[in-house]
Amino acid sequence: MLSLNVFNAFPLAELEVGKHFYWQLGNLKLHGQVFLTSWFVIGLLVLVTFLASRNIQRVPSGLQNLMEYGLEFIRDLAKNQIGEKEYRPWVPFVGTLFLFIFVSNWSGALVPWKLFKLPEGELGAPTADINTTVALALLTSLAYFYAGFSRKGLGYFGNYVQPVPFMLPFKIIEDFTKPLSLSFRLFGNILADELVVGVLVLLVPLFVPLPVMALGLFTSAIQALIFATLAAAYIGEAMEDHHGEGHEEH
């Protein structure tokens, strides 16, 4: 499935292949498939978080231990990319990106979405739809613009004329292409994995698809890590000064 329809009420670009399940809300057309699977992922994360934190123990075990390990992992990721002094406010954002993408990617391989029938289209991993990955890229862009402005104010614009003023148009293009390249990489990898597994299941339905599915789970986790790491790196880069001191200062 491939569908890019940005703000249907104010269409900027549209590309659609195959049939899709939409909800009509006034003049706005909502991508129902993406909402349904995204709500599933969000609900699963909320449920696991609730179960892990409802009875906090001094010596963690089970789900609490898993969640504390995940928090420590995300905290280290943010610290390494953003800096010692600046990373704490950004842990929730980086963690949300990583967990949502990670669970979304794995849901495409582990959840039998094809068993749930829709009037049109079919369900799949949220990150196998380009609407989701572009939305995540736009959130990343807003995050590092906010980080830069909150740290340096209007001085943030000085980045666009460094080291020489004629770099201005190239820096502006770079700010938009960096997160979009993330979104297309994530979308392409997850969609390709679902297609390969789907074809193998049709051709050789027993044991051959299993190694491919295992490899898909591994690459899905790597894709989540890459997206979150680069998002944190962009935020850290936006807060660096013009003299290249960057993370050493932080």
Describe the structure.
The structure is a single chain. The chain is mainly alpha-helical. The chain is built from 7 helices and 4 strands; from the N terminus they run ββββααααααα. Strands 1-2 form a two-stranded antiparallel sheet. It has a two-stranded antiparallel ribbon with strand order 3-4. Strand 1 (2-5) and strand 2 (14-17) form a beta hairpin. Helix 1 packs across helix 2 and helix 3 packs antiparallel against helix 6 (209-238). Mean pLDDT is 76; it is low at 1-17 and 243-250. This is ATP synthase subunit a.
Descriptors:
mainly alpha; disordered N terminus; thylakoid; disordered C terminus; two-stranded antiparallel sheet; 7 helices; transport; 250 residues; hydrogen ion transport
> How are helices and strands ordered from N to C?
EEEEHHHHHHH
Number of domains: 1
The percentage of residues in β strands lies in 5-15%
State the helix count: 7
| Low-pLDDT runs | 1-17, 243-250
Secondary-structure class: mainly alpha
Total number of strands: 4
Mean of residue pLDDT?
76
Which percent bin holds the helix content? 55-70%
Tell me the major beta sheet: 2 strands, antiparallel
Question: What is the terminal-to-terminal distance?
Answer: 43 Å
Rg from alpha-carbon coordinates = 20 Å
Shape: globular
State the strand order across the main sheet: 1-2
